[in-house]
Design brief:
Elements (H helix, E strand, L loop, with lengths): L11 H8 L3 H23 L15 H30 L18 H9 L20 E10 L3 E3 L6 E13 L3 E14 L4 E4 L3 E2 L3 E4 L5 H5 L2 H8 L1 H6 L4 E7 L6 E14 L3 E18 L3 E9 L3 E8 L9 H4 L9 E6 L4 E10 L3 H8 L16 E13 L2 E11 L14 E9 L10 E3 L2 E4 L1
Parallel strand pairs: 13-15, 16-18
Antiparallel strand pairs: 1-3, 2-3, 3-4, 4-5, 4-6, 4-7, 8-9, 9-10, 10-11, 10-12, 14-15, 14-17, 15-16, 17-18, 17-19
């Protein structure tokens, strides 16, 4: 390489001159040459050091650790600030601290039982239960008592603590038992530290029988029962006499059979035309827990009819005077022997109305003016005997051609039986003695032809 000598080298101006440049262009070329020379000198002065890499220097450890701690603290502060902001906005710091629950005295079984014993509870109305005893009910007796868990009502600090006890209240008389579900609420009193009972709440009443239905009570309502089943049949047999009754009633109900007899009469000057209607009715009796004994007609038999004519006596009265008297000499007396009041007898004859007492007493050769002809309306019929009867009653001898008949329970007082031949069975009762008969038969059975 050939080194260049700056002093021997021609300047740009000189070159310009040599090349024939103008003075101005020569001056410019001179300035450029001077700048170039200065740059070359600077590069040469920096030779060996330009573009080199300085050796690595050790870092200041303490200064870096302090910076890391500061940055961590800043981050923690930012996180804490965010958490506090969330808690405030969510209402965490607005919640009232929970108060400690007051210690309550427990509600004991004895307290509950005592509360039920102090309850005032009216007896249910049993008039809607048909054909049962209406005697006053005894009760209530509480059983099956169950106590519920306490319940808190209202906000903390203003709570009402309640619970309730359920039980069954029982009432009864000789014929029916009534059960009523009841609820007794309790509320705790902090001031008194005790449980205070509230008003008793009652449920739906149910009932069960303790005795069978009374057949006589049912048959006393027979007209309504028959009309409800069949109005036509009910009208035809309205007010019919119950000649015979068979009942098999238990606590579970059962059947009743009644033989009915009814006479429909038309009358003219000489005779009474009588149409006798007979029928057999069967009833069924069953228990209802809400209505008592329910009675239905299980069978209404065919109505049989018989027509007969009865002569009218001279006074124009049916069954009077001589019609009831019998001359003992006409027949051989029947001897019933020695009997006393209360003994059951059976006598046969024709049933007539209680009229013409003087003739009746003459036929019996017996009078008692201290009593009436019908024992104050206790006697409804005269049984004109088929033949005289010799009877020693309570030590006294009588020959009877007629005897009084008491037919209690017959709605028409036995009028429908007048003119019928019948066998009458029942005890001899002194209370049915009349002015013309020393005793009367309390008719338990009347069998008509």
């Amino acid at each position: 390489m050939t080194e260049l000598d700056p002093q021997k080298s021609a300047s740009p101006a000189d070159s310009a001159k040599e090349e024939g440049l103008s003075p101005r262009a020569a001056a410019e070329a001179k300035k450029a040459a001077a700048a170039k020379a200065a740059a070359a000198a600077y590069i040469q002065s920096a030779e060996g050091g330009y573009g080199g890499v300085d050796a690595a220097q050790p870092r200041d450890v303490k200064k870096g650790h302090r910076a890391a701690i500061i940055i961590g603290l800043v981050i923690c502060l930012l996180v804490a600030a965010g958490a506090l902001t969330y808690l405030f906005t969510s209402g965490f710091f607005n919640e009232t601290p929970a108060t400690e629950e007051t210690q309550r005295v427990p509600l004991s079984d004895q307290r509950v039982i005592a509360a039920f014993d102090e309850v005032s509870m009216d007896a249910p109305d049993i008039s809607r239960f048909a054909y049962v005893s209406q005697d006053a009910l005894i009760g209530p007796k509480f059983s099956d008592i169950v106590l519920s868990e306490p319940t808190n009502l209202g906000a903390p600090g203003n709570q009402i603590v309640t619970c309730e006890a359920t039980a069954t209240a029982t009432f009864k008389n000789k014929g029916i038992e009534i059960n009523v579900p009841v609820t007794l609420p309790f509320e705790y009193s902090d001031a008194g530290e005790t449980w205070v009972p509230g008003e008793l709440v009652t449920g739906e009443v149910t009932a069960s029988p303790l005795a069978s239905a009374n057949a006589n009570d049912i048959l006393a309502n027979l007209n309504d029962i028959l009309n409800a089943n069949d109005p036509t049949y009910g009208e035809a047999m309205a007010d019919a006499s119950i000649v015979k009754t068979t009942a098999d009633l238990t606590i579970d109900g059962g059947p009743i059979t009644a033989e009915l007899s009814k006479t429909v009469e038309t009358k003219d000057e000489k005779t009474i035309t009588s149409e006798l209607r007979t029928s057999t009715v069967k009833l069924g009796v069953a228990w209802s827990n809400t209505e008592g004994w329910l009675v239905t007609v299980t069978e209404a038999g065919k109505i049989e009819t018989t027509t007969s004519q009865i002569p009218v006596n001279p006074e124009g009265e049916e069954g009077g005077g001589g019609a009831a008297s019998v001359n003992p000499a006409d027949t051989t007396p029947e001897n019933l022997g020695s009997v006393k009041y209360g003994d059951t007898v059976t006598m046969s004859g024709t049933l007539q109305a209680v009229k013409g007492a003087a003739a009746l007493s003459k036929g019996n050769d017996y009078t008692n003016k201290e009593v009436t002809a019908d024992a104050n309306k206790s006697v409804q019929l005269v049984l004109k005997l088929n033949r005289p009867v010799d009877i020693k009653l309570n030590g006294k001898q009588y020959r009877l051609t007629t005897i009084a008949v008491a037919t209690s329970g017959l709605d028409d007082n036995g009028k429908s039986l007048i003119g019928r031949k019948a066998d009458v069975k029942g005890p001899l009762e002194e209370s049915f003695a009349t002015s013309w008969s020393p005793a009367g038969i309390k008719a338990l059975e009347i069998h008509v032809e």
